[in-house]
Amino acid sequence: MIAIVNYGAGNIASVKRAFEYLGYTCTVTSDPDLIERSDRFVVPGVGNFQTTTLLSTNALAPALARQVSLGKPLLGICLGMQWLFQFSDEAPGVLGLGAFTGRCQSLPAAVKSPHVGWDQLEICWQSRLLRGIGSGGFVYFTHRYCAPVIEATVATCDYGASFSAAVEDGNIFGVQFHPEKSGETGLVVLENFCTC
Amino acid sequence: MLTKRIIACLDVSGGRVVKGVRFSQLCDAGDPAELARRHADGGADEIVLLDISATREGRATLLDVVRRSARELFIPYTVGGGIHSLHEAAAVVEAGADKVVINSAAVTRPELITEIAYRFGSQAVIVALDAKRGSVTGRSEVWVAGGTESTEMDVLAWVKEAENRGAGEILLTSIEHDGTRTGFDCELTARVFAAVNIPVIASGGAGTTEHFIEVFRNGCADAALAASIFHYGLHSIRELKKNLAAEGLPMRLPC
Fold this sequence. Notes:
The structure holds 2 protein chains of 2 kinds.
Chain A: E1 2-5, H1 13-21, E2 26-29, H2 32-36, E3 40-43, H3 53-57, H4 60-69, E4 74-77, H5 79-83, E5 87-88, E6 103-106, E7 115-120, E8 122-123, E9 138-143, E10 145-146, E11 153-159, E12 161-169, E13 172-175, H6 183-195
Parallel strand pairs in A: 1-2, 1-3, 3-4, 4-13, 5-6
Antiparallel strand pairs in A: 6-10, 7-9, 8-11, 11-12, 12-13
Chain B: E1 5-13, E2 16-21, E3 25-30, H1 32-41, E4 46-51, H2 56-70, E5 77-80, H3 86-95, E6 99-102, H4 104-108, H5 111-120, E7 125-133, E8 140-144, E9 149-154, H6 155-164, E10 169-174, H7 186-195, E11 200-203, H8 209-217, E12 223-226, H9 228-231, H10 237-246
Parallel strand pairs in B: 1-4, 1-12, 4-5, 5-6, 6-7, 7-10, 10-11, 11-12
Antiparallel strand pairs in B: 1-2, 2-3, 7-8, 8-9
Helix pairs in contact in B: 1-2
């Protein structure tokens, strides 16, 4: 079963619908016990990095960290991906999970922020998460902050500057875009995650 | 490259898609869930569903329509029409909308923008406004009540306020151009684009491929919305996007 972690950050019903459309059973939960019993985890989220403190205060972060250390796959979406990093300029002092090294920053001042709409992926290396998706593929973004390009970056997007559109390291995955709103390409990403 | 978006709009009344002919007679254009799906398959970058009945019975029907259409729609889905409270916004989000459109309720009580943005994020709030030149002042003003009543508010002042209060996007409809198929109000769109940092969706007047080129080039619109020209197959969205791409505009293709 896939546990979609509900920590009060925006609407996550669309993520659930997409997994169900693909034929997977999932549950939306904020119960650490249920997380312990699930096979895969999705941390969605929109809004401010500050909101991710709810993951810690509700004992969700330690439960997730424990399960991920056992090798179970975790996918962070949008704010959920930024949370996989150490910090964000959006909420200095708030710690992320720290699965990836680096600090999320606001988009460059030279471009309109937020970055809203369909933009293209530039594939860095053949990952499991983006299997079957080539450079130039379109996905839907809506964000003001972005994660730096690091070794674990499997795809970048260029908007004023290059940022991490997708990251992957072992059983930990993250996407800045919304796979549940990115048409067929997005559904491929979710399917890949379910079979990783 | 970030693409220009083509948004298909469905005007819904009593659970059916309708389209006004010269603002009066409404004719049936099909089932919303089916049309939404068809537009998504046909290359639309986003779907907007507007409830134009806005009656209490209509509301329950609308939520059912939103639920049904959201089930198989995996592109951004926006719902609006008659949303006056956080409670009503939450109901459409829970039914499956990614974003809500608020119009006159935001004018009456601008705090609503902040309330929805706080609960669901700014990306979930589109502030729509109907613009028309005031007969006395000659400047573009915000009109409400289906475009029959001027608030005398300046369009540019209002979009700035909406952005400051947490709007994620602006949906600008020109009353003078709406339904005419003579082209968008590019001049006003460009002024709104320059006034805010959030995306601007232009609406009202779409008729030909040329109109879309103009509103993206001269109007600087981030997205363009149209309804009837897509429903009756006057334009295939995919063909339109191919033509726009051939003109050098960034489009999501293949789609």
